[in-house]
Design brief:
mainly alpha; 11 helices; globular; 3-stranded mixed sheet; single chain; 5 strands
Length: about 300
């Protein structure tokens, strides 16, 4: 196929999860419901943390940032998918595709860093409880979040600049429901060796490093919990990090599962379907995991709904 100059590309076609006409109304209703639940659930978390002074602690500060990022992650992909299904038009402009890819990379990497910061917060709370308020002061918490935002911004900017250097063929169909970086590299007609190397190195460094930090933190946490003599003390210590551990397992389990399964099957369609787990399902479940397992969050939400009812 003949390569097309970047300036001549009008857009791409997002093939979505299925091209079967009878499945489109089902997909539209399902993803609209999931998106509304995600936005509402995470907004309630942000509202609860903002209004209740008892929740003005590092743990809930990071949680509110995570909820904001989850809203951004789903808003980057689902609304465009819903519009395409409703209008029966799969087109997305070149600029729109690059923009979608940039924001998805940004929010996805930021999600990764925030989970790491929250693991460090639990590590300090359980392993160094007497120094917790001194170590996790507001300045450090703000700095950790700011660094996470800066690194995520630089990462997404770097990847977008790399993609902008690529040339594309006339066949611009993307077998996905959003403009995913790996799919863009595969679609390019020019040499993508450098792009692939940068992508894999960045994933290894910026995703593997935080994951190693999370595993190290929880190894220390487990050791500290085992050293507690009373069963009640062990349960209390474990309950403070159970929600975060559940979210970490869900996020990394689904995302790693997607890339391992796609590498094994080499099927773009199956990869797109599996991507729903970490890009849509995980942000939707996060508020439920934290609210159901956390008595402080549940108490605040009860009071909020009680005031609303009155």
């Amino acid at each position: 196929m003949e390569a097309v100059n970047l300036t001549q590309i009008s857009g791409f076609l997002l093939l979505g999860l299925s091209e079967a006409p009878e499945l489109q109304p089902i997909l539209f209703g399902l993803f609209l419901s999931m998106y509304l639940i995600t936005v509402l659930g995470n907004l309630l978390i942000i509202l609860a943390v903002s209004l209740d002074s008892h929740l003005h602690m590092p743990m809930y500060f990071f949680l509110s940032n995570l909820s904001l990022v989850d809203i951004g992650l789903t808003t980057t992909t689902i609304p465009k998918m819903l519009v395409n299904i409703q209008t029966q038009n799969k087109a997305i402009s070149y600029a729109g595709c690059i923009t979608q890819m940039v924001f998805f990379l940004f929010f996805g990497m930021l999600d990764n860093f925030l989970l790491t910061v929250m693991a460090y917060d639990r590590f300090v709370a359980i392993c160094h409880p007497l120094h917790y308020t001194v170590i996790m002061n507001p300045q450090l918490c703000g700095l950790l979040v700011l660094i996470s935002w800066i690194i995520s911004s630089l990462y997404s900017l770097l990847q977008s600049l790399m993609v902008l250097q690529l040339s594309f063929c006339a066949d611009l169909e993307i077998p996905h429901f959003f403009c995913e970086l790996n799919q863009m590299n595969q679609l390019a007609s020019s040499d993508t060796f450098l792009n692939d190397m940068v992508m894999y190195f960045a994933v290894l460094l910026l995703a593997g490093g935080p994951l190693a930090g999370i595993l190290y933190s929880y190894s220390k946490i487990v050791t500290s919990i085992c050293a507690i003599s009373s069963a009640q003390g062990k349960y209390k210590a474990f309950s403070t990090c159970a929600s975060h551990l559940s979210v970490v397992s869900l996020f990394y389990g689904t995302s790693l599962g997607v890339y391992l399964s796609s590498a094994a099957t080499h099927s773009s369609q199956s990869s797109a379907t599996a991507s729903v787990m970490y890009s849509v399902v995980t942000p939707m479940l996060n508020p439920f995991i934290y609210s159901l397992r956390n008595e402080d969050i549940k108490g605040t939400l009860r009071r909020l709904f009680g005031v609303a009812a009155l």
